[in-house]
Amino acid sequence: MNAKETLELISKQWCSLSDLIKLTGLGKNNASKLKSEIRVDLVNKGYQLPTKLLPMNEVVNYLKININYLQKMSKEITN
Question: How many structural domains comprise the chain?
Fold first, then answer.
């Protein structure tokens, strides 16, 4: 995925398993484990979550995705 595609993906409100696979490049099993880790962390913080979804902003924070860098790279690609 390029920077623009990543920005479009992380602009969604919720992150599904398939989104997590695209963001991380992990296989289904490892992405599922990561999703469970993030879910447990959020539930421990007091979040109540839909069954198969995670808040995208929390996934971005957990994965430490640099949005400013992606925006800069996206602008360079279009120019």
Answer: 1
